[in-house]
Amino acid sequence: MVIVNHYPSSCGVLGIIRANGNADRVKGDYVVTGISAVKYRGIGLGAGYAAISLNGHGNYRIGLFAVREHYEDVDSLLRDSLSEAGVRVINSTVKAKVGSVVDVEYEVNGAGDGLGDLINSINDRLWEMGGVGRVYYWGRHVTVFKGVGHPEEVAKVYGVNSLEADAWVAHTRFPTNSPGYLPYWSHPFAINDIAVVHNGELSSYGVNAVHLGLTMGVRGFVGTDSEIAAYILNYLVKVNGLNVETAVKIMVNPSLRGTTDPLLMRLLNEYRWARLDGPFTLVMTMYHDGDVYLIALADRFKLRPIVIGYDGQYYYAASEEVEIRAISPEARVWTLAPGGYFIASIRRGVVSWGRPVEQVEVFFPQRRFPRPVDGDAIDARGLGYREVNEEILRRIMKGDRVVRVVNVNGQRFIGVNLPRYGIRGVRVEIYGTPGNSLANLNNGVEFVVYGNVQDDVADTMHDGKVVVHGDARDVLGQAFQGGRIFVRGNAGNRVGVQMREYSNRRPYLVIGGRVDDYLGEYMAGGVIMVLGIDAYKLGKSVELTGNYIGSGMVGGRIYIRGRVDYSKVGLAPSSHEVKALVEALREEGYPEDTFNEWLSRVLQVSHVPRPTMDYRELTEDEVRELKPILLDYAKELGIDEQVIDDLIGERYTVVKPGVRGIPTPVNYGFE
Amino acid sequence: MRYLEDLENVRIINSFLRILNKDYTRDFWSSSVVEEIRRMAVTGRPIRIFRRGVRRYRILDRLSFGKDEVALNGEETYSADLTTRIGDVELSAPIYIGDMSFGALSGVPNVVVAEVADELNLVAGIGEGGLHPEVGRHRRIFIQWASARFGIDIDVLMRGLGIVIKIGQGAKPGIGGHLPGSKVTKLISMVRRIPVGVDALSPAPHHDIYSIEDLKQRIDALKEATGKPVLVKIAATNYTPYIVVGIARMGADGVIIDGHGAGTGAAPQVVKDNVGIPIELAVASADKMLRREGLRDGFTVIASGRISSADDAAKVIALGADAVALGTSVLISMGCIMARTCHTGNCPAGITSKLTEGSVLVDHELARRGALNYLRAFQAELGLIVDRLGLGSVRELVGRRDLLRGSCISGELAKILDVNNECDADPPPLKAGGSVWTPDYSIYASQLAKKGDVVITSMGSTGPPEVEPPKRLIDWLRLDGAQVTKPSIDPYREDIDTSVYLAGGRLTMSSPIIIRPPREWGAEQLERAKFVAHLMDIAIDLYGLPNPTGRHASRVMWDRPLRGMAALVINPSDLDGKLTPETEAPVYVRLPPLKDPVSHVKQHLNMISGIIIDDELGGEVDLEVSLVNADLELRRLGVRYRVDVIAHMSTLRSSGDVVKLAALGADAVEVSSILGKAIVPGGFEDKLINIVNGLKREVAQLLGAAGVYTYHSTVVGNRELLRALDPRIKELLRVKVAGEW
Predict the structure, then answer these.
(1) Is the ipTM above a cut-off of 0.90?
(2) What class does CATH assign to A378-572+610-656?
(3) Interface contact flag, A584 B735, Cβ < 8 Å
(4) Is the peptide bond before A356 cis (omega within 30 degrees of 0)?
(5) What is the pTM (predicted TM-score) of this model?
(6) Among candidates A204, A301, A525 on the partner chain, residue whose Cβ is nearest the Cβ of B195
(7) Which of A206, A266, A441 lies nearest to residue B154, judging by beta carbons?
(8) CB within 8 Å: A4 and B505
(9) What is A9-56+141-355's CATH number?
(10) pLDDT tens digit string along A41-98?
(11) CATH: 2.30.30, 3.30.70, 3.40.1000, 1.10.1060. Which one for A59-121?
């Protein structure tokens, strides 16, 4: 365990839990439907499900995969190792025989606290024998069904559809390599009544794994990130006794840049081995202390997608909204903030919402979208993106100026085929939740979406319009260079990154709700407005953006209604560094009025100035430029013009590029 | 050259300039290599084949076809079929002319490359700087879809034979681009479609591609938009075989793997020298995994980076590439003299000059003739090699490792390369001796002190072990660069936490850097250095040096107790004497690089905050070995997060060394000789601030390149972030060999 093996892979994840003790148990059928909605996030080389029940078995159960021709050796190794430790197998059931693998569940008694170590050593020995078998779950509340195949195929083998549980996680996998096409590498990973699915790649893997190996004595890892996460959660909560929220906070690895809480700093350092780095979303379910939990967390850069949903019965955590919609079309959905975590349990309810609860309440209400009116629409149900796009193209070629597509759920790349045919000036109306990469390369078509859109909408758009009646997610309008993007609700992380203008083209992006981090990063032109319309109507004074606004911007303007603290603009120097600098200057006897100059000189990079910020009313020129845009926004989204007039009269935080070579005046913000 | 006629006062270079005299330990493209390419550029004829490798530390040079070198008279003809395919595009020879952008090159070479590709039925990648109409007139081009999408729209995409999604490049894996506004002239502005004078930024990752399934999404989107073949270009890094297999599974038509040392118009020197793995290992291991997964057929692998001759090409083809990309060598055929000034825009040969009035530009005809002749001669050499290997076509050479022989290629390297091995002499020594302060690193140190920021240079790496002979074990290590499976992070614009938490939180620092003053600094300089350490939120170790004032004590590590000091540094012999339960400050024990350093303090682990492994004290083993053993032993004892490990390597010369030592196990690193090297009399304090800032920013840059946003928890002891270029290093430092899986 000094040199580790690490296999990158990628995927789609899903988790569901009963919202409370009165809600129905969760049907396997739902879970299979949900994860199958993002089949395209996998490639048929791995899928799986884990079910957790509040009422467990009296005895521990151990799930084992064995390569068929070695089954007898593996079986006796397991039985012998267990019985040497006083653990007796009282029953064993062959769950399935798939390909070259036998899947067996053992019921044992006499197991105590040492079972985890025992199973680690069994897995270690099986690994040394060339991976002829693998214990792939154990506990009293968890059962795992996983294999090499698409989600429905694996479900069929185990009859997952007809099962019920209190919480589930599910996974479809996109492996890079598939050593021997064995199910060991499929997810979920489960130990000790914890099951984990994961999307992303941990750059911290080498530290996490070596520490678990050398200090905790866990050996024979199969080499995937979910496995590591399952062990970490197990050690933090079940071995070291941390509470669930603290454990999750350590794993999510918040930036220490702005943290001054000494307790948190101590915890994060004491458990340094448990902190995760790199892109990840984890969805975990766990039986602990008489309760069942569903946990979803996102890295602090929010590099992987994750959506939370609630429909009165169940909470959901999914890679894509379409998974939730496939199960529960009307569910209310929201997203995790960067570095946010959602924790819900059957007994405790929601422990953490994934972002401040006020944000969820104000910005993520249940949205109802107009239903399609009758008419000759394309019914997208059961169609792939190519078929949808071809039909849209065919109708436009035939002369239709408005094309309507209904029952959209997850089809990616809608409209991406149109620019190549020089199509402009037509309108495509979409009802439902389109998949990622809608309207990329758009050059003059109007897209109207009655629903939420997902990631990467309007990438490299040059002209035309995208109107979204719901929310947009991450990386909306990347390299957006002309035309208009209007979103009624919120947008996620990295909105309008590298927007730019050239010659007579200027792009406008208007968000009606709020946005997360890195708004307008690398922006080189164009205008972004964040309005917070619902908050305004409710008279709530809440912040409309996350951190790092306009970081690295070199052109363009960002208008955010209300006051934004300057610490959120660009990449502010770390508070620890500022503190040390001030102490040093005082100790050296420098006058206080030189501190800002020192700060600029020592902590600012001259070629990447921080953006500047003003808090003010719009100027006449600005009103002249922006009012027609906002009136168009209002017209498209059915908002009263009076509201627009009121909004125009409000004060805005206006963010513009700093000037290269000239340090941006800073308020060093101590005292 | 009508297309540039609106530029005034341009000086045209219409003959080759004199070659700079550089031996092969100073530049991969040494004078002899440049001369040979020039001869081919002038005559258009082959010169020799089966060249003996001259670089004993370059793995590709240690491979051969086991044939004696053949000098040619230039009249030889070949019969081998050199044609090959990329997707559905047929090529007359397995040559892709590398992705060099409009802006990185001065326009003329961009047009010439496209013209020559048409004339010879090869293909040329246009790079990411948009499509100049004069380049766009040519058919055999591949359009690059890069993170900034400069100058890209559907019409431009439809102009090419195919599309290249550029994830990374070998010279700077995980690093974005930055063309300062001053270089965004009228012409560049038009091609990139950005206003004149505005900085052109290319983010380090594509912000829509943070994983393999995201890349699939982009491939599918581009195919849906254009119907054209899509290649993906990646830098060769730790996970290359997995990434390449992922790319093939996702339905891309091929991959361009760009190896360590490839050319660039501008890149941070420490990234060039420390990140990424050699093309020969990347191609061999990717090809092998593709075959195992049944994905090799119909998928094109293009090897790029440091292909300096037809022999290099033939060898990487035998290791598993279908074709090679040529960039630097083609520029040399146009007159490049390796002045390495591309990033300044003042190219003496007019090849990478800034496109503005008064500039120097290479003559179109000179460049065209040179490139045509060179490529013809290159093809002839390749054809003759294929002939003499007894093969009918270059396609038959793909993956024929059995034709290759290795010289002292052992252990894991032999497994990756799968070649026959011969070893009649000793394998090359791990340490060649000599000063680490080469001219390049002396300039680097003074640049750091002058600018206080990441040092930018141009063209390919001149670092160890391949070019500069290795002097320390870390010279054999490479850091990971994030490609596809995770995004790299931009240290200037995004939140990378490089802070360090030592002594249980009693000593925290903004970066893992501790000032270790050179002996020659006087009392006043030491006082200033203490101030700078405090000002910049790091520490200073004054062990054995005078410290007459109590100022900035909170940042001072010293061998005598001081009120409010950062740490007391003692020798192991003092453990029983000096150390009393009343000792207030954190205590660090200074040890030479011992094989098992922890055993020397084992009885006192509960009384000390950490150890400082210092190679100034001599020692039994290399510092790197001692460091790894300390980290592992402390983990075994379950006290790693109570006992810190600090390293002082007296030959440390760059931030690359800092990060490597951290990944081997150091929480923080003491820097000394680089301070002495860079700080000359005059402006002491400014220079010290600059050098610390430069190192800090480069550390963040290297972390970001590897897709890491937290230093202390992620990097320290994370040997998975490293790869070794020799199996002996794997044994010594427990680091996997590059290309291993």
Answers:
(1) yes
(2) mainly beta
(3) no
(4) no
(5) 0.97
(6) A525
(7) A441
(8) no
(9) 3.60.20.10
(10) 888 888 999 999 999 999 999 999 999 999 999 999 999 999 999 999 999 999 999 8
(11) 3.30.70
